[in-house]
Amino acid sequence: MTAQEVRLCGLLLQEHFGDVVEKVGTHLIRSGVLTLRALAHETKLPLDLVKKSLCVLMQHGMCAFGAGRRGPAGPVEYHIICERILHMLRYPRYIYTAKSLYGDTGELIVEEILQRGQMTMSSTVKTVADRLTHNMPEGQSMDYSEVVSAFSRLVETHFLQRCPPMASAESSSSGADNTPLPAVTQPTEPEDHPECYKLPYINLTGQGKRRRSSEDGEADPRAAKKAKTDSSERGDEGIYWQVNFQRFHLHFRDQAIISAVSCKLDQTSSEIVRTMLRMSEVTTPTHAAFTQALSANEIFRALPSSYNIARPILDQYLTLLVDDPMEFVGKTGDSGGGMFGSRSARIFRLLLRKRHLEQKQVEDFAMVPAKEAKDMLYTLLSENLVQLQEIPKTPDYAPSRTFYLYTVNQLPTARLLLQHCYKTVGNLIERRLYETKENKRLLEKSQRIEAILASLQATGAEAAQLTEVEEMITAPERQQLESLRHHINKLDSSENQVDETIFLLESYINSTQAPR
Amino acid sequence: MAGRGRGQLTFSVEIVGIGKGENLPPSSVQPTPLFPPLDQKPVPLQTGEEAEYMLALKQEFRGAMKTLPFYIRPAAPKKDVERYSDKYQKIETSDNSLEWKPDWRRFPKELRVREKRPLRDKSPAVPKQPKQPRVDKEEIIRKLETLEQKEEDRSSDEEDGEKKKPQEEEAEGEEEYDEEEFEDETDYIMSYFDNGEEFGGDSDDNDEAIY
Q1: Is the pTM of this model over 0.90?
Q2: Per the database record, which ranges form the RNA polymerase III subunit RPC82-related helix-turn-helix domain (chain A) (predicted)?
Q3: Interface of B with A in 3-32 (CB under 8 A)
């Protein structure tokens, strides 16, 4: 874990789970593996708060536990899974993808599961149905069966998966005294479980309930009790579902490839690539560098009929795609251009293509005047995007008789850019928190006034009263609020976009490192 | 050797690209400015329906997380003085149990927070072993308490008697002190001052040698 990653994880934990969890989480990331006692002692927090935080982190799959170094009889040790925390940046993208694929129902299902970490199918269906009913016009309600079908589709396409069962080795406390008490359960990988994507049989019929505001207070404890007994009756107790992030990542990767191809070639070729990818969706393992070999016949049959692609044309396209060095790395070059100007980007791309170049050659190929080329190369060099390689002509490395070649190492450069991205997102979040803190008083005031307005409107007040309340915020304050909202929106939006770059760089690094 | 003097480089300067007599930028002695001017403007943000929808999703998600029971707030700091409003304002019950029920079969046992009972603080570790010493401790405490009570009963009679005497003595002592103090109207208590007049008087009774 690099310093930037730890900082970013801390900020994300603080935003979503509060200060206590942030403290516990960052300390555990820095220490690696700790027992409960050690963690409580070192963070100097009360034991109960530490326990609560660990429960929250484990519920969301960000913390895992295992038998300690002293074996199953010793205390349990906990560690943090950092990449799950970093996935929190991408939650809006996951939800949006679910919406585009499976509509509002799918969107709400994924959102609920992301908010709660893990859920049983029956509770998800009920909550989502209630939420959808709430938004529907009066008199209509959402049937459970529709939600169930959306859920099933999500599971079939592997976007949701079961939480792995615990390899439980617990014996009850009243059991035999001879056996030692292994109170440790060992979590397993979700994919290892054969029933990972099997839907449980639940008898869930009914419709979403519309929540009436007056009954809220009383209904909740009764509803909570009812929910507990219900899930055990529904037949899927103990089966929890979580979001399958790998699958979403595959989807994003495919999308990126398709859009890259369509940018470079044309729409039709992108359709062909999309078909190929869809066919190999379920057959190709996640980290494979290449999809399974597909024959031209299979592709031809699988093409959507709306595109009338004749067989010979398909063959032509395929040869074109094969010849084109489809470089996924085009994106790395673009980010180099943004900071240093388009000419530097040209130089960078040139170095990527030609691998090693001398100074003079760079000037010639890039068609950039000598002085500018020198300047840009040194700037790139100082930022470590470009490296200098020495090739001596004589064994004594005399400078006058040595070739100095400029080159780009893709993998370290990608890593460097990734760290820059993490730092960027960290800075964006901190700036947003700062802006919010600076204007806290104003924000609170506007919230209070909105609450007053809402209550007045509910009880049916006159227009004069409403305008009077609205005028409590002066015009310059309104402007300030407006500009604050604008800034915060911009910062949030930037976070989303930087995350797209983060995803590309992470996929590149992971796929390059994975053994082929 | 290294550091023989500035200006002696191991390679000729021309190769790096700096010609003779060219002006090098002056060396800077200040830290870099906090917001350095950018040569290139950053790439403009994407706008469009997708970006705005994702923005809305993000902000809603953040807001929703703050209301869920997973957002843990640190315990409210203890108030320094009891305030009148405490009677009427509902203080958040710092309930030690979680507000949501995780499936405890999937979590290690030690994380289970049991509710606090008034006199007992249950330790969170595996409950088997600590039970016995706790029971012993309680017995011991009870024994000690009974012993204390017995002692108190016994000594309470004596104490009553004793208490009266020191009170009288103190009263007398104070009166004496008051008289002495006010004799010459000084701050010094007269009985502490020994002006040596009595020095010779004692020697008649002493058989010991005087050094």
Answers
A1: no
A2: 8-66
A3: 10-12, 15, 17
